[in-house]
User: Which sequence fits this backbone?
């Protein structure tokens, strides 16, 4: 595995891989890698019998542009030594670990990419500027790597919808793929931010996924009223945890539009604070 | 010369040219071609003795996103038959003439690219949303064509600065080049919008360039006070035409920052209405 913090070195290596006829895959991350990230590498390797067909670039960059002034940019967990080992073991070809200086040499970018509508609610309304920061840095990464495919994890489902919309609107020549959420044994969605949880919070956190599963069962049983299902989730979280609910929403899966009745493909998404730790989770349901 | 209105056809043709080892050049225009546009094709052809080295893509697209609600989108002059002939004669390899539907299949793009600071003044403050529309459509064209080089005319100097900034900020792998303004014999900068001018307005319009030349002479003679030079231009235009001045500015050429004293590379830029026709012009001066 190659590792570089420089855009030019990355471009040289990707160009060589491309000349060798390889398919270039980008997996953008903020590091502090867990099975959620690493499963994406495995997913790529499984796509084809020819292990050498793909050239997998993983980026690790905690992007200051997507954190609000009162968010956890400074304390976001980092461990590049461990990440390097894990990425290598998983089969990454090139690990890109740019500094903030390398990505924003003149300070915060004057140019920003904004995606309307799909960023209006859910995390968008609670984290102003977040998706502008995400869309801007992902634009940069796409232009730097020029990947054929890029993977995004389902845990950040709204992010995936935003990137899909951006790619479509701006004609970016990349195929965006969704990687399933990987969970701890008790159901808690893997997240670098789980490291913040105190023991009691960690014990309660799996209720989020259980409440989503219960919602899916309700829908499987015939319930179609969005508010009834949301209320059921709210009750369970309120009754069984000290978590503070930020939002519980059921939306169209393709564009996150509001619905009153459940039909077609929907996403059930929530954000809940445990102490100062904000956790998100979601499931996709097809009716 | 190939001509297509379809993104997929364009991509196929560009891919073939690239496989043949050609350097891909993009010249984005809004059509109604004049010598200003065609001189860019000639400039490319002159770059290398090997005429076949370059694959020149010219786009013709009157981009609704960059016109304000009270601007001239509907009456902007169009003549695709004439443009096709002129592009072919000049040596364009591929003429890309997408419909609005092809560029914005779902209506106005949800995704927008914004460039701060360099869009604050000059045309930016008088045409709200204009540079957002420009940056967005140029992003799309860059992603569609993936050119090695792209040319922009100096007459729209602020647009060139905006695109340069965007390309730098978003790491777009393209080299942006400035093509000199081509002028009528009497000095009027070539522009598709000159077609709007009534005879008397057309007679007066060359005063714009003469006032810029006079400003350059003043500076060459030692004048360094921005306001003295601006006032001289204002007087000349006011005395010799019925034009209504929108702005006259002298700015740093690289980032359009305000200055009080003239030093280094500066741009002297102006916008003046003749009747309902808005004309812009500028010159670069190095002290």
Assistant:
């Amino acid at each position: 595995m190659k590792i570089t913090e420089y855009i030019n070195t990355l471009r040289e290596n990707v160009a060589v891989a491309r000349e060798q006829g390889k398919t270039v895959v980008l997996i953008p991350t903020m590091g502090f890698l867990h099975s959620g990230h690493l499963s994406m590498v495995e997913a790529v390797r499984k796509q084809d019998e020819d292990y050498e067909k793909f050239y997998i670039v993983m980026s690790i960059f905690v992007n200051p542009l997507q954190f609000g002034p009162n968010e956890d940019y400074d304390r976001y967990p980092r461990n590049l030594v461990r990440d390097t080992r894990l990425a290598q073991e998983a089969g990454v070809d090139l690990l890109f670990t740019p500094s903030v200086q390398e990505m924003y040499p003149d300070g915060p970018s004057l140019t920003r990419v904004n995606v309307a509508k799909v960023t209006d609610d859910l995390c968008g309304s609670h984290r102003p500027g977040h998706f502008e920061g995400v869309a801007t840095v992902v634009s940069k990464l796409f232009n730097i790597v020029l990947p054929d495919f890029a993977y995004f994890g389902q845990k950040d489902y709204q992010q995936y919808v935003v990137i899909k919309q951006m790619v479509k609107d701006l004609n970016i020549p990349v195929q965006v793929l969704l990687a399933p959420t990987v969970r701890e044994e008790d159901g808690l969605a893997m997240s670098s931010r789980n490291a913040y949880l105190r023991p009691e919070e960690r014990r309660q956190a799996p209720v989020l996924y259980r409440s989503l599963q219960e919602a899916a069962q309700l829908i499987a049983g015939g319930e179609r009223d969005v508010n009834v299902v949301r209320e059921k989730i709210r009750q369970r979280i309120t009754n069984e945890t000290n978590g503070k609910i930020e939002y519980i929403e059921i939306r169209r899966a393709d564009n996150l539009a509001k619905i009153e009745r459940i039909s077609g493909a929907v996403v059930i998404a929530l954000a809940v604070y445990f102490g100062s730790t904000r956790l998100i989770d979601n499931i996709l349901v097809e009716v």
